[in-house]
């Protein structure tokens, strides 16, 4: 019986370890998205400071290409929309992983208690 509980604990620990890795990856992804969002907010603020007749250039590879100011503003807004959606999606994923970690931790504690109870009764 104790051996069976130990095998279950080992399996739960492996699952927990995988969830932790996925959690770290999701948190890292969210941090990257937050950074991109902040960068795009700064670009948006800079574009708002420009006069209507200002020239805007976009870096495409090694080349600067002239871009319409309104088009540049629209592109930044679209990027910010997309990044915001990705942040929300990632936050939901992080929340789900936190719940999963809690559930696994609860299972591990139960198994640990069961194992402790078996050792006491033997």
TrEMBL record:
<dbReference type="InterPro" id="IPR009053">
    <property type="entry name" value="Prefoldin"/>
</dbReference>
<dbReference type="GO" id="GO:0051087">
    <property type="term" value="F:protein-folding chaperone binding"/>
</dbReference>
<dbReference type="GO" id="GO:0051131">
    <property type="term" value="P:chaperone-mediated protein complex assembly"/>
</dbReference>
<feature type="coiled-coil region">
    <location>
        <begin position="26"/>
        <end position="114"/>
    </location>
</feature>
<dbReference type="GO" id="GO:0006457">
    <property type="term" value="P:protein folding"/>
</dbReference>
<dbReference type="GO" id="GO:0016272">
    <property type="term" value="C:prefoldin complex"/>
</dbReference>
<dbReference type="Pfam" id="PF01920">
    <property type="entry name" value="Prefoldin_2"/>
</dbReference>
<keyword id="KW-0175">Coiled coil</keyword>
<comment type="similarity">
    <text>Belongs to the prefoldin subunit beta family.</text>
</comment>
<dbReference type="GO" id="GO:0005737">
    <property type="term" value="C:cytoplasm"/>
</dbReference>
<dbReference type="InterPro" id="IPR002777">
    <property type="entry name" value="PFD_beta-like"/>
</dbReference>
<protein>
    <recommendedName>
        <fullName>Probable prefoldin subunit 6</fullName>
    </recommendedName>
</protein>
<keyword id="KW-0143">Chaperone</keyword>
<comment type="subunit">
    <text>Heterohexamer of two PFD-alpha type and four PFD-beta type subunits.</text>
</comment>
<dbReference type="GO" id="GO:0051082">
    <property type="term" value="F:unfolded protein binding"/>
</dbReference>
């Amino acid at each position: 019986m104790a051996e069976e509980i130990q095998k279950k604990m080992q399996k739960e620990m492996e699952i927990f370890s995988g969830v932790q890795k996925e959690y770290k990856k999701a948190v890292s992804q969210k941090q990257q998205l937050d950074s991109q969002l902040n960068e795009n907010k700064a670009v948006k603020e800079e574009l708002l400071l420009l006069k209507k007749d200002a020239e805007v250039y976009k870096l495409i590879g090694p080349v600067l290409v002239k871009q319409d100011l309104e088009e540049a503003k629209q592109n930044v807004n679209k990027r910010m929309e997309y990044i915001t959606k990705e942040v929300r999606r990632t936050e939901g994923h992080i929340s789900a992983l936190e719940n999963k970690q809690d559930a696994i931790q609860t299972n591990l504690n139960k198994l640990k208690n069961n194992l402790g109870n078996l050792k006491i009764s033997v």
